[in-house]
Each structure stands twice: as C-alpha cells, then as structure tokens.
Amino acid sequence: MESSKAALRERFIGWQCRLRKMAVREAGGKPSAGMRPRVLSPAGAELAAAITVLIVPADPDDSIKLFRYQVLRTEDPAERHDRALELLASDYFRRPREFSDVMTALFAGRSWLADELLSRGQCQLVFGQDDHRYRMACGVVEFPDQDPYFQATYWHNRLYNPCLPAGVRVLGFKPDWSRASFKKTMRTTIDA
Known about the structure:
This protein is α+β, with helices and mostly antiparallel strands and 192 residues long.
C-alpha cells in the first residue's frame, strides 16, 4: 500500500512538472488546465470551477531568493516576465523529486473561497488534462506571511503580476495519498 501511494505521488508530481515546463516553453507561462483543478467540498459539491495551484520545492529557500531577486531587479514587467520564463524553462522543473507534494494557491485578502476552504479544513482537488485525471482529498491550511511556502508562492506570483494587492493569502493543499486516485481516459478527437 505504501509503495502504491508513493508511486501515485511521484507520478502526479512528475506530471505537474511536465505540464509546467510545457506551459513555460509553449504558452508563455499561462497555466494549463492540468494546473487549475476543480475544487470540491469533501462531499463533492463544487466550490470553484478552477483555481491555479503551484508546486513548491521541498526546500524553497533558493527559489525564494531567485524569484525575489528577479522581481526587485527591474521595474519593467515585460523584462521581468521574460526573465521568469527563462528561469522556469531552464531546469527549474527538471527534478520532480525535489518538489513537495504540498500545493499552494494565492487568494485575495477577502476571498470567500479561502474562508470557506479554511472553515472546512479539507477539500477535494480534481485535476485533468488530455488523458490524465487525478482526484485527491486534501487538508487545507493557511500559511503565515513569513512561512517559506508563503514566500515562494508570493514571489513566484510577483514574477507574473507586479501589482498584487496588499493582504494576499496563501493556502496550502496537502493530499491524502491513501484517498487519491489516478485515471487515464481515452483521448477523443473531433474532426473539423
């Protein structure tokens, strides 16, 4: 059982790294469907059609320093965006085993969804892109602003959005791998 949970975890994080490399290299960093899971209550009611989640290195200190440096290096948002794409396209996502399985998402200070998720303390995230489908029960926590997961998420988001409002919040989603599932679906194509 432990080996199947570890295998599912590795498969998921490897898939997330591949999706993120493709997004950076082929879509200018725009999050793809597989990076934007549906959010369901523990009972299965939809709370949000999609939120963008990040994967964070297990030891995010180097990432925090790198992202912060790039953000503070220039006032030009286009230059910052281009540099972010270079950094993330190089080798950032090349070693999936260096990433934590805790995913993060940034929310506005007065987000009803963040409040709802925190009051429940858990949710389900449903990921899907192409023929891959993952469903996982997750515990939900809020990271204080000095926490490394908050800092990594904040500075990553600042690379793409220089005008983040004050008071943003970062929530963490920790999968329960014993209750997670993977399903490979059949691809269908529609002729135009």
